[in-house]
UniProtKB/TrEMBL annotation:
The keyword Membrane applies. Its main location: membrane. It is found in: Cell membrane. Keywords: Cell membrane, Membrane, Transmembrane, Transmembrane helix. It is a multi-pass membrane protein. InterPro entries: LptG (IPR030923), LptG/LptF_permease (IPR005495). This is LPS export ABC transporter permease LptG. The chain crosses the membrane at residues 68-86, 107-125, 282-301, 308-325, 337-360.
Length: 364
């Protein structure tokens, strides 16, 4: 048995099934409690909007539950692993497995393989459900829980800076050269002082800058107001700066986020936080694979010696330390202190080595 990756087939399925049922039970309990607490703070705001009622409360629950599941699934896997291994240890099942020749890694292996399946489910769940529910919930919250306008691909109330000048567009739609602006206002500034205000009914990128139609220009120094049918202004602004004014990694799938990052790079805008979020969409679900390894210390040691509680606390401490390090690294990546790839993957690789070192040092 020492040369096998898994123990016996029956034991492998028993360990994996026990681990999955415990983790699912913990996840269901966490979602129930956290969703209830969340409703206590949000239901009043939803019902404050005229016309909202019980249907809107259930709609909020339907949009919020996927976010809670995605965020606390790794916690549920950690607690499910600790409960499973501590129970096996307390019932002397671990002693029986080790007496039959199974190593510590062989005892943990079924849990790790099952957690790989959990990680794959988490990734697909995030891509197909969580990103959409987050986008819908953000759009609903932006209108104070009222009716959400139909999605048309139009960005509204967009501000862009071009040198000292400020450009405001009531709406912007399209991508690339096909971008069209409506109700454009350009605040022409020199050295921080306002020189003129140029307004146009529509705006479109052309050779040499942006063409505004139905233009009105107010000169601050003279107080004169002039109008022209159209004018081309040499603004150093790319179209994607209008249509990608507010991009969030949370409400986009991996493919959509990659496309938006490419657009922003072409527009010369910083993409570090979005790239960190993109890499974290892959490293985040894999945190479930770490939990059996970090919590594996709870499986070993004599339960009667009083060390079981210490081992459980140690496993829990390692798991929560990972989440703290992961959030800290991601925050540093958003600030630009860490490269995006390092911010997303460094905590995972670090705690993978820590978990393996602890398991080998204490049991192998």
């Amino acid at each position: 048995m020492a040369l096998r990756f898994f123990p016996s087939r029956q034991l492998t399925f028993y360990l994996a099934r026990t681990f999955l049922t415990r983790s699912l039970a913990v996840l269901a309990l966490l979602v129930l409690v956290l969703q209830t607490l969340d409703l206590l703070g949000t239901s009043g705001q939803i019902l404050a909007h005229p016309g909202n009622g019980q249907a809107e409360i259930w709609r909020y629950v339907g949009l919020r539950v996927p976010q809670i599941v995605a965020r606390f699934l790794p916690f549920a896997v950690l607690l499910g692993t600790l409960i499973t291994l501590a129970t096996l240890n307390q019932n002397s099942e671990v002693i029986a497995m080790k007496a039959s020749g199974a190593s510590a890694h062989q005892i943990i292996a079924p849990l790790i393989v099952a957690s790989i399946g959990v990680a794959l489910f988490s990734f697909m769940f995030n891509e197909r459900i969580v990103a959409r529910s987050t986008a819908s919930l953000n759009a609903w919250e932006a209108v104070d829980w009222g009716p959400v306008p139909r999605a048309t691909g139009v960005s509204s109330n967009v501000w862009v800076r071009s040198g000292d000048d400020l450009v405001h567009a009531a709406t912007a739609q399209g991508r690339g050269a096909a971008t069209r602006l409506n109700d454009v206002i350009i605040y022409d500034r020199t050295g921080g002082s306002l020189v003129s205000i140029v307004s146009g009914k529509t705006g479109q990128q052309v050779a040499g800058g942006w063409r505004l139609d139905d233009v009105t220009r107010f000169d601050v120094a003279s107080g004169k107001l002039t109008t022209r049918p159209s004018v081309v202004l040499p603004l150093g602004v790319r179209p994607d700066q209008f249509t990608l004014a507010d991009v969030s990694a949370d409400d986009r799938s991996l493919a959509q986020l990659r496309q938006d990052i490419d657009y922003l790079k072409a527009a010369g805008r910083p993409t570090g936080p979005l790239e960190a979020g993109m890499w974290h969409k892959m490293s985040g679900p894999l945190s479930a694979v770490l939990m059996p390894l970090l919590a594996g210390v709870a499986a070993f040691g004599l339960a009667r010696s009083g060390a079981l509680f210490v081992r459980v606390v140690t496993g829990m401490g390692l798991g929560f330390a990972y989440f703290v390090a992961d959030n800290a690294a991601l925050a540093m990546g958003n600030l630009g202190a860490y490269p995006p790839f390092l911010a997303a993957w460094a905590p995972f690789l670090l705690f993978l080595m820590i978990g393996e070192a602890v398991l080998i040092r204490t049991e192998e």
